[in-house]
């Protein structure tokens, strides 16, 4: 063991701590960061540009005059106040349901033995491989027969029964996390007279906060950006902000017709970027608030046990 440790130490100081290696690592990180941040920075700067700046080839990043007219028009076309509220409860409530239910399912798979357990785990993972478009018609027929189309229950019920968006990934995440937790916790609680539900709610579930944070953030983002199922099952009864963004161009042309040839009413790139920024801004704010917990959750999911 000492030889292996010495080899690792020498390799670390000889190669990973070398200036050339540091330069390569930082170069790669900066390049990847630029590739991810460039669209966001371009979106922010363009959304504050006026029509004159957009057609001026000398203006690339910094606008000569900051304007908020783009946001005003985009907000009006998106009906952002109503659409943001619809998106908030149509994504937060299913995300909370999914965070809890998938943990309960994974706990049962991790702690209990039953016939064909491996088969059910494989079948659960196979549901993730099936594209959502394949089951789209059957889902619509099911909710239509239950008279639930156009109601929030088309999102609430699947998440409440472990069939939400990409629930299989979260079940697998909890399953691996619970397997790393020492089973001596459960045994000690059983000696004190606790049943399975008490063990889950009072011991296992509080210890799974790192996995809970990861599950909630990803669920929130996926439910927020979902347009295929919500557009078909909700229709025009509940319009979320991504649905409003999808129909942004056609609705803008109706609200601000440019038949008179006026360039003021003509849709431009600044208005498009403003509408897109309004759509993703709540997610950016949520991530900035939960950034620390999210990073810590990714680190803590590597905990090992018996």
From TrEMBL:
SUPFAM superfamilies: MetI-like (SSF161098). PROSITE patterns: ABC_TM1 (PS50928). It comes from the Bacteria. The keyword Membrane applies. GO terms for cellular component: plasma membrane. It is found in: Cell membrane. Belongs to the binding-protein-dependent transport system permease family. This is Carbohydrate ABC transporter membrane protein 2, CUT1 family.
């Amino acid at each position: 063991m000492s030889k292996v440790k010495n080899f690792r130490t020498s390799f670390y100081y000889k190669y990973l701590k070398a200036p050339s290696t540091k330069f390569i690592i930082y170069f790669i990180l900066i390049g990847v960061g630029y590739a991810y941040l460039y669209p966001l920075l371009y979106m922010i700067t363009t959304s504050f540009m006026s029509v004159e700046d957009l057609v001026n080839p000398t203006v690339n990043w910094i606008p000569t005059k900051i304007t908020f007219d783009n946001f005003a028009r985009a907000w009006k076309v998106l009906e952002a106040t109503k659409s943001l509220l619809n998106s908030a409860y149509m994504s937060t409530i299913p995300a909370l349901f999914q965070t809890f239910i998938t943990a309960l399912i994974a706990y049962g798979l991790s702690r209990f033995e039953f016939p064909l357990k491996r088969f059910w785990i494989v079948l659960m993972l196979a549901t993730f491989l099936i594209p959502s478009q394949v089951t789209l018609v059957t889902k619509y027929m099911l909710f239509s027969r239950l008279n639930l189309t156009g109601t929030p229950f088309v999102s609430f019920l699947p998440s409440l029964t472990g069939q939400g968006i990409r629930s299989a990934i979260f079940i697998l995440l909890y399953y691996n996390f619970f397997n790393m937790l020492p089973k001596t916790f459960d045994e000690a609680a059983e000696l004190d007279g606790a049943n399975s539900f008490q063990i889950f709610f009072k011991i296992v579930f509080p210890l799974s906060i790192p996995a809970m944070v990861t599950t909630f953030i990803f669920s929130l983002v996926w439910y927020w950006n979902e347009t295929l199922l919500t557009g078909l099952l909700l229709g025009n009864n509940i319009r979320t902000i991504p649905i409003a963004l999808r129909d942004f161009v056609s609705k803008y042309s109706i609200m601000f017709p440019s038949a008179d040839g006026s360039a003021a009413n003509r849709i431009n790139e600044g208005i498009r970027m403003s509408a897109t920024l309004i759509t993703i801004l709540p997610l950016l704010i949520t991530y900035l608030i939960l950034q620390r917990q999210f990073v810590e959750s990714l680190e803590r999911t590597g905990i090992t046990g018996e």
